[in-house]
Amino acid sequence: MKSRTENIDEINSWHSHFREYIETYKQGNTSFQDLIKDDAYFRKKLTQFLFSPKGAIYQANFWFAEKLVCGKPAPDILLQAIPFSHLRFERSSEWIPAMEEVEEIVESIPFSNYSFPIALTYINWKTDAIVGTELLRNVGIALICIFLTTLISLGSWRGSLLVMMCVLLTCIDVTGFMHWWGLTIDITSMNVIIISVGLCVDFCAHIVHGFLTGQGTREERVLYVMEKVAPAVMNGGFSTILALSLLVTSRSHIFISFFKIFLLICLFGLFHGLVTLPVVLACIGATEENSENKEEKGNDQTADVDEGFRHGSEMNKNVRKDAADDVEIVPEEIVLLSTTGAAEVENPPNCENTSNNNQELEKLSLKNLECSNESAAEKSTKNFTLNKILRHSRNKSVMLKKCPEQNTSNQNLESAGNV
User: Fold this and answer.
1) Strands 334-336 and 327-330, how do they pair?
2) 398-401/353-356 β-pairing
């Protein structure tokens, strides 16, 4: 095995010494391979070898089914070990290929039973070998979760993609800058990076949310976000850096890695959230037409009310004023008299005049009473006209006209206007 790899420093195998022992004390010209095929001969000589001066050091490399006794044939062998040592390595890019090469060599040797290389350092080396794959997989799963979560909370697939893009760029920048700060991708840095993914969302999700809820063009909404939302995001980032500053004096590798990675996350997260993201939103953000479409869907539920208000504005243009009597005659049989004028209005046919003060008029307007023979648009129009007139006639007495063809018990007052 040593001849097949340059990563092995020394192999201390008992096989070569056992072969020398047999060749030295054998009788006759029989070859070593033929001698050890005899099971009784092999067990006898193995016991003698393990109790000899040269072979005694190898007793610890055997695990027998029973205790090994001097002068008796060796019991069944359950486990044997062949010690070897690697060269001294300095980085994971050296010891990971060395470990994988040893595994390939052991697997290719036709041992009679199952064989595998094992070492205490292989635990860390094996972790370093799979940590890169695990980091990519876990960050990918985290990005998918971020996209789904922001899609539900923001309600915009484009905004969710932008948030996921900023998080991905932040993680790439952090992992790249770790090399220049003396950090490697190990189990500690991998865990800190995965935890930091959630922190990256805060730097960009609020910006996208403020942009989507704003009004105006893309540029106007970006300015709104930078004025209203960006200061809070910046304060949050610098407060996090301030909280982590206490770890800078630590000598522990875990705490130092935690501080460096979180500092990079905050700096690059703020950069992408406050610089890169606003530029991207100003270029390819949701347009104002998309916002108007959402508003139109919401306005479909109140179409009848909007139609009534439109009719009301048209009817207000047709209002005629009587300058001599200070009387404003409103269409749809709405009549009000000013206390400053001396005019009198005769009762129209089948109608009865009633005097009320302003307080009663306001109470009647809140009831939104309607005549049964009118359409929904006409009813909304009269209510709109009444509310508009009441705002300008707080100190005037009014005269209302009741709707004809209604029973006294079920009579409803129409809306009124001011003079």
Assistant:
1) antiparallel
2) antiparallel
Segment holding 355, helix H or strand E: strand 353-356
Terminal-residue alpha carbon distance, the chain: 110
Question: What pLDDT is attached to residue 398?
Answer: 41
Q: What is the DSSP code (8-state) at residue 259?
A: H
Per DSSP, 274 falls in state: I
Task: For residue 316, count other CB atoms closer than 10 A to its CB.
Answer: 16
Domain boundaries, the chain: 2-119, 132-286, 314-401
Dig out the tokens for 288 from the structure. Answer: 């104002």
3 state DSSP class of 399 = strand
User: 295-321, pLDDT tens digit by residue?
Assistant: 444 445 444 445 544 554 555 454 444
What are the beta bridge partners of residue 80? Answer: 62
In three-state secondary structure terms, 93 is: helix
**What would the pLDDT profile of 217-260 be if each residue is shown by its tens digit?**
889 999 999 999 999 999 999 999 999 888 888 888 889 999 99
- Would you state the pLDDT for residue 386? 53
Q: Are 163 and 211 a contacting pair, CB within 8 Å?
A: no
Q: DSSP letters along 133-199, please?
A: HHHHHHHHHHHHHHHHHHHHHH--HHHHHHHHHHHHHHHHHHHHHHHHTT----HHHHHHHHHHHHH
| DSSP tag of 272 | I
How do strand 84-86 and strand 334-336 relate by DSSP bridges?
Answer: unpaired
pTM for this one?
0.55
On whether the 132-286 domain is CATH 3.50.30.10, my answer is no
Give Cβ neighbours of residue 225 (< 8 Å, ≥ 6 apart): 207, 210, 211, 214, 278, 281
Structure tokens at 278: 């606003």
- Look at the block and give the residue holding tokens 């595998």: 116
Tokens 């220049």, residue located: 180
- Amino acid symbol at 57: I
Whole-angstrom distance, CA of residue 33 vs CA of residue 332:
122
Number of other residues whose CB lies within 10 A of the CB of residue 388: 16
Q: Minimal CA–CA distance to 232: which of 205, 260, 251, 212?
A: 205
Buried-state track 369-384, b at ≥16 Cβ within 10 A, e below 16: bbbeeeeeebbbbbbb
Which of 372 and 121 is assigned the larger pLDDT?
A: 121
